[in-house]
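queue> pop job 88
queue> type: inverse folding (structure -> sequence)
queue> payload:
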């Protein structure tokens, strides 16, 4: 099985990221990626680029171009043997000339429309030349060897172009769009040019009031967090009892402060915190070097009991990042919070979650039963978990902070982190998966699987009916709705919660 972490890709875990349970998988952890021994599949090597490229593959009228390439392939294989034959000088010259003409035409042709007039004559001429070559007494092993050499070169060239395209795709999904960067910079500059009144001072009593409904979002993305908040507020009948705590890094802190001073979300209170503030960083011994939101992983598995044991299946999951384990210390006065990822939108009232009996558990989470603990055995360790248990995922989680403190989940996480982290930046990111999963072992309450439909950032097969019936949608995966590479069919649900008429959005050409 291969696993890749993403923040944004699920690709060979560059932080971006159903088997039968009877057979363990081999695994190696590398920079947040875990590769479980099996034949390399497209997604294992190139991540969600494979899904995107398949969906965006253009139908081309190139049957004749392909015919030219096939003929050139065969002619090149025969030519060295023909050139060595006694008495075949004319055929050798004819074949060489035809090869050169084919190469010249193919250098400028991608589709049939690019081919010169009367190209059919060239095809027929080459066909006759190849037929003559096949009629000669040549050493078959030499032709076969040449064919294999050309095949290897062709495969290498194809793989090179695939890698190049996948790199450009990954660049597109991992790089902040120019418009969003502009928005963040404009807001930051404006904050220091003309600081807004500190609205949070008048709301301080709300921020620590356990009788209110508290939502926590870890984010670096101003627009994404705004959409998450707006969707949650619009879907609620009582926004006055809602408090949103945004935890971000120092780079985006002032931009967010100004954004929420300028924009209002009905009667909800917004609290922006810089998690890299020294007062917060020293809350415990996590040794957190920087802000860490939810982490996304790409996990590829193979089923040894199926008919095609080498065929890989790839899934994408989100999990709590290091920063999440500061929750009980940051919010010491709160008893319960709902944690939302910034790629989530809420379509229906969440009031029922606040009254949900978690049966003494800490983390109310949606289970992801396409992957089970047993499939991560060599990553999580043996005999430390129920192998048949489903993975839980982040996105929308109801957290009992009192039970968290009682069971010292943060302390458990710290010990697990020491076990899986060897001191390198690579394992610092990849350790998130096993440490987060095991920290909540036996402390997770399964929420209704219909509560959140996930995968809107990579899965093209989700039906509109499922989307409309779901309480919340999660755009986990690389194709986020704020990117040009987002899936248009799903992005429309996200875009309807964008703030309208915001001056800086218009100035930065943020598309609505």
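queue> result:
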């Amino acid at each position: 099985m291969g696993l890749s972490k993403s923040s944004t890709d699920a690709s060979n875990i560059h932080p971006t990221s159903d088997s039968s349970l009877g057979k363990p998988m081999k695994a190696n952890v590398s920079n947040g990626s875990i590769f479980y021994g099996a034949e390399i599949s497209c997604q294992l090597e190139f991540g969600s680029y494979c899904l995107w490229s398949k969906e965006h593959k253009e139908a081309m009228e190139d049957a004749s171009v392909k015919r030219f390439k096939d003929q050139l392939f065969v002619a090149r294989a025969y030519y060295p043997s023909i050139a060595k034959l006694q008495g075949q000088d004319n055929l050798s010259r004819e074949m060489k000339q035809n090869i050169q003409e084919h190469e010249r035409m193919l250098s400028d042709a991608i589709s049939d429309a690019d081919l010169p007039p009367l190209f059919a004559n060239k095809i027929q001429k080459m066909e006759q030349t190849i037929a003559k070559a096949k009629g000669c007494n040549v050493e078959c092993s030499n032709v076969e060897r040449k064919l294999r050499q050309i095949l290897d070169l062709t495969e290498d060239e194809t793989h090179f172009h695939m890698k190049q395209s996948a790199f450009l795709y990954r660049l597109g999904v991992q790089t902040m769009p120019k418009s969003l960067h502009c928005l963040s910079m404009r807001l930051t500059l404006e904050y220091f040019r003309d600081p807004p009144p500190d609205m949070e001072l008048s709301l301080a009593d709300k921020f620590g009031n356990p009788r209110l409904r508290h939502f926590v979002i870890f984010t670096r993305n101003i627009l994404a967090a705004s959409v998450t908040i707006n969707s949650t507020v619009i879907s609620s009948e009582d926004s006055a009892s809602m408090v949103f705590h945004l935890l971000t890094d120092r780079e985006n802190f002032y931009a967010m402060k100004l954004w929420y001073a300028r924009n209002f979300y009905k009667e909800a209170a917004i609290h922006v915190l810089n998690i890299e503030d020294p007062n917060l960083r020293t809350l415990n011994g996590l040794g957190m070097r920087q802000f860490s939101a939810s982490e996304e992983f790409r996990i590829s598995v193979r089923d040894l009991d199926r008919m095609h044991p080498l065929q890989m299946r790839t899934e994408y999951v989100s999990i709590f990042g290091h920063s999440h384990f500061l929750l009980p210390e940051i919010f010491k006065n709160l008893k319960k919070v709902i944690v939302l990822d910034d790629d989530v939108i809420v379509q229906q009232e969440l009031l029922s979650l606040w009254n949900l009996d978690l049966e003494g558990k800490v983390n109310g989470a949606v289970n992801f039963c396409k992957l089970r603990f047993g499939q991560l055995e060599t990553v999580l360790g043996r005999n430390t978990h129920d192998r048949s248990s489903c993975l839980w995922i982040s996105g929308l989680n109801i957290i009992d902070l009192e039970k968290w403190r009682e069971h010292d989940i943060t302390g458990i996480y710290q010990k697990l982190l020491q076990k899986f982290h060897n001191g390198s930046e690579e394992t610092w990111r990849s350790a998130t998966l096993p440490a987060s999963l095991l920290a909540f072992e036996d402390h997770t309450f399964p929420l209704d699987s219909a509560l959140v439909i996930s995968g809107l950032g990579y899965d093209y097969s989700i039906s509109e009916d499922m989307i409309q019936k779901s309480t919340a949608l999660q755009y986990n995966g690389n194709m986020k709705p704020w990117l040009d590479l987002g899936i248009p069919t799903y992005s429309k649900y996200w875009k309807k919660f964008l703030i309208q008429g915001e001056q800086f959005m218009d100035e930065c050409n943020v598309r609505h």
